[in-house]
Predict the 3D structure of the following.
Amino acid sequence: MKVEELKELIRCVPDFPSKGIMFRDLTTLIKDGEALHDMGTMLADLYRGKGVTKVVGIESRGFIGGSILAYELGCGFVPARKPGKLPAVTIKKAYAKEYGVDTIEMHSDAITSDDVVVLHDDLLATGGTMLACYELVKSMNPKKIYINFIVELEGLGGRALLPAECEVTSLLKFE
């Protein structure tokens, strides 16, 4: 499949989760075996030869593409989770959301200074969650950090919030 064919598989749900929002539902893409396989290959092709050692997937939809990406690259997968979900010692980062504050956590030993890391989430909207994840991973001093999304909603400007020194890629873009 081509990128445009993948894009056509994403269902648009108006007024979800609230009025005025056009929700981009990736479940219609990932339920298609061929599309899921091709999406994983396309994501991995963005990072082949870059020495990636870990993919960090952001809870919960980032676990899907992030696991596929890690598998395709033959590297490790690290979950970035909501508080209280990880069993060992964690580090955390709080960040502002539209209606309050949220927190993201990772195991304190998940990333080392030898790692080249891809941060992955399914969708870039306003960028706050990814920025918090970036800052959390950056505090662990990896060699390099890349940022990746399956879908980017360009009209919301989330990319501008992300660090300029970091390569940011999105497979599919919507206005």
The chain has a mean pLDDT of 96. The radius of gyration is 16 Å.
